[in-house]
Design brief:
Blueprint lengths: L34 E8 L5 E8 L4 E6 L4 H20 L4 H10 L6 E3 L5 E3 L2 H10 L1
Antiparallel strand pairs: 1-2, 1-4, 1-5, 2-3
Helix pairs in contact: 1-2
Length: about 130
Amino acid sequence: MSRGEPVNPRLAEDVHFNLVRQGSPKYKFWTDKPVRYFTVVDKEGGAPLGYVWGSDEDDAATWVPCEAAGGRALAETGHWHARLQDAKERGLLPSQALEEMLSNPEGNRGRALPGSLTDALNADAVKALARTE
């Protein structure tokens, strides 16, 4: 001890901390702030399948399937969520992600309806619309 050696030799080693990433970055799934959204329609017949909304103010965006569209709407979920996650990983604001999706509107079973980008009071208003369609 008098030579300045630690009691446990491991304590003399440098300590390294590794930053562990907790999954991919994601937009928030809800906001009470105003949102912009567009309609996704079925390629077969044009019925609404759901809505993609975003809010830059809360860095929030998601896909909301229309209940009446059933399985076809649910089948689109992965496609639109993947596009949103990709946009977030590239650092895009939700509004930029929506514009990008509208410029490349094709989904699996549906497509973004041109000219359908509009405003809603908040995320709950878009969810309510999806329940009534």
